[in-house]
Structure formats: C-alpha cells, structure tokens
C-alpha cells in the first residue's frame, strides 16, 4: 500500500514529490498483463485482428464520476499518516478502512490514472473499471484503440506479502478468452511493491489486508507485549 511520508505515499499527498502508488501499479498492471495476453497471438494473423476488433474500442468510455476534493484528500492523508506511524512504532491502533469513494479520491489525485481507472467494491469483491489508450509502444494494430472494461481483483495477503490478481475480466463488453484470463491471473499486479524495502517492512507489520463488506481494511498485528 504505497502511502507514507518517505517511500509509501497517498496520491496527491501535500508537500512531497509525486511517487507511484499501488493504485498506479494496479491500473497500469491491468493494461500490461492484458497486452501480454494479446501479444501471445500477435503473430497469428486473423486471430490477432479478431481479438483487437472484439476486445478493444475506437474511443474511450466515460468512467463514473469521483470526488476530486483536495481538502478530503488531505484529511485522508492525515488519517493514513496517524495509522502508519502507529503501526511502525508498535502502538495500538484500530484497523485502517478505505471505501471505494476514498480509493477513487486517491485515483483522481494521480494525473496518470484520474481519467483511466475507477475502483468499485461490490458484494465483498474489489473491481477495477478502466479505459486506457493502447498503441503507445507501437504494438501492431493498436494505435487509436482503447482497452475499456472491468476486472475483478483478488487480494491475497500472507505473512506480510501482498498479491493482487485478476480473477475475471471483460473488455469491450465481452468476457476475455479463458486462455488470456489464465495468463493474467498468474500476474501479481502489486509485484513492484516487493522492490520497495519500506513498503515490505510496513506490510510485514500488518495482520491482514482484505475486503470486508464495502471497505478495504488494513489490520495491524497486535502490539508485542
């Protein structure tokens, strides 16, 4: 969870230079793993063009509106900072909870994501709704195309290690082929957090990262006696 004063940050955090958040990795990760799946058939001629035609669009889709209140974002940052410092210092602190609206508040504070990603929490599951331009890296046939869709993300947290995996995904209103979904599901969208030593240290002080009801909950380990 990329949100603290040195190496783990809330997007839009006041007074610091902008760094990548875990939400940035989630959003970009969705596109990267989707392109990995598509790249596997780039040499299959008609099938490649069939995938591009069926699963990408010629225009972006409008995503649900989300708050962009800097005041609310700052209040969320202050609440996070209190939680983060308490966990790092081993002080008792209640779990930190984020609603989908608060997650989207962080997204709108990130120029890389604000127009391309929204988060939903429905029936105890986390979803990402996305609309990303393709073809920026020169992939064949993708210039002027957009990946528009929705994915269900599974959160797994064990012994301080966080994994975010695509469990189901639709693009252009269609479920993606199963073989592509199998490939996507093997990719950990949060893998870059493992390279951030401060994020790793913090995550190892948590007991759980999970969806409970309509919230993302970070639960700290009980303080040592």
UniProtKB/TrEMBL annotation:
Protein name (record): Uncharacterized protein
The keyword Membrane is annotated on this UniProt entry: yes
Regions crossing the membrane: 22-49
Keywords noted in UniProt: Membrane, Transmembrane, Transmembrane helix
């Amino acid at each position: 969870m990329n949100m603290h004063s040195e190496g783990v940050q809330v997007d839009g955090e006041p007074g610091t230079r902008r760094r990548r958040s875990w939400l940035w990795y989630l959003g970009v990760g969705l596109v990267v793993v989707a392109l990995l799946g598509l790249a596997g058939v780039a040499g299959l001629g008609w099938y490649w063009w069939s995938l591009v035609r069926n699963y990408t669009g010629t225009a972006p889709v409008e995503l649900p509106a989300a708050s962009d209140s800097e005041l609310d974002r700052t209040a969320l940052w202050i609440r996070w900072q209190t939680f983060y410092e308490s966990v790092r210092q081993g002080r008792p602190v209640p779990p930190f909870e984020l609603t989908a609206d608060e997650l989207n508040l962080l997204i709108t504070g990130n120029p890389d994501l604000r127009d391309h990603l929204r988060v939903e929490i429905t029936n105890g599951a986390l979803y990402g709704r996305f609309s990303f331009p393709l073809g920026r890296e020169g992939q064949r046939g993708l210039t002027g195309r957009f990946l528009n869709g929705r994915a269900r993300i599974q959160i797994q947290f064990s012994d301080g290690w966080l994994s975010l995996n695509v469990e189901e995904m639709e693009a252009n209103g269609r479920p993606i082929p199963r073989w592509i979904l199998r490939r996507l599901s093997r990719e950990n969208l949060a893998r870059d957090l493992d390279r951030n030593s401060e994020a790793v240290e913090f995550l190892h002080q948590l007991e759980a990262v999970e969806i409970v009801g309509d919230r993302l909950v970070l639960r700290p380990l009980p303080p040592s006696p």
